[in-house]
Amino acid sequence: MKKVILVYFSPTGNTRKSLEAMAAPFGGAAEVVDLTAEEAPVRTFEADDVVIMGMPVYGGRIPAVARERLAGLAGKGTRCLAVVTYGNRHYDDALLELADLAKAQGFAVVGAAALVGRHTYGEIQTDRPDEADLAADREFAVRVLSGEEHEFVIPGNRPYRDGGSGGKFRPLTSDACVHCGLCVKACPVHAIADDCVTIADTCLSCFRCIRRCPKGAKNMDTEAYRTFAAAFTEKLKARRENEYYC
Ligand SMILES: Cc1cc2nc3c(=O)[nH]c(=O)nc-3n(C[C@H](O)[C@H](O)[C@H](O)COP(=O)(O)O)c2cc1C
Hints:
Shape: globular
CATH class of the largest domain: Alpha Beta
Order of helices and strands: EHEEEHEEHEHEHHEHE
Mean pLDDT: 97
CATH superfamily of the largest domain: Flavodoxin domain
Strand order of the largest sheet: 2-1-4-6-7-10
Oligomer: single chain
Largest sheet: 6 strands, mixed
CATH architecture of the largest domain: 3-Layer(aba) Sandwich
Structural class: alpha/beta
Distance between the termini: 18 Å
Number of helices: 7
Bound molecules: flavin mononucleotide
Radius of gyration: 18 Å
Strand content: 15-25%
C-alpha cells in the first residue's frame, strides 16, 4: 500500500477518532480530507492507496451535506473502508449508502463498520468510542488490509429511508460569549453569523459549536430540549456493540 488517506465529516469528533485509530497501525494517515471544513475537495486517489471514509449517521442516512462534499473524490479501484458512527440508536441505511457512494466513485469497498459513538443529544454512551472500541477499530483495519479479501453483505435497504438532514435544535448563546469567532469558523455549514449569536436555518444541529465553545456560551439550555434529552437518554441506555464487515 502506498499511503492511507482519511476522508471524514465529523462535527463532534467521534468519526475522526475511529478513523485515526484505524490508520494508526499503518503509521497514521498520510493525508486527511476533512469534509467538515473542506466543502468541495477534488482528488483522485491511486490504485495502491487506501482510503478510510467515515461519516456520522443523521436520521439513518449519511448527512446530505457530507454526501455532496464527497462528489469530487474519485478512486481508481482504490481500496476503501466505509465507516459510519452512530449514537446508539441505529445506523439503518447509512452504511449501505456510504458503501454504494464509494463504489460509484471508483473505490473498491473491502471492509465496512458501523460504530457507536457518543450521541449528539442527551447523555448517551458519553465515553464512546472508548479504548476497547478504538482497539477493535485498529485490529479490524489490520485484519482487512493485511489479509485476503472476501465477499460480504452490508445491512440496509434500497431505496434508502428518508433522512440525512440536520436536527431541529438551534443552539442558544449565553452572555458568556466573548465573540471570539471560533464557532463562526468551526460551523460546517456557515450557520453562525459574525456576531457569533445569530443562527441561520441551515444549522444542522450538529452541536459542534456547543462542544467547542471555550466559554461554554453555546448551549441548548431549554426546558423542551432537557425534557427530550432525558427521555431519549433513557430510551437508548442499553449499550450497542460495534459491527465490522469484511
Ligand atoms: C441531526 C442528527 C441526527 C442523528 N441521527 C442519528 C440516528 O439516526 N441514529 C443514531 O444512532 N445516532 C444519530 N445521531 C448521532 C450521531 O450519529 C453520532 O453522535 C455520531 O457519532 C456523531 O459523529 P461525529 O462525532 O463524527 O460528528 C444523530 C446526530 C445528529 C446531529
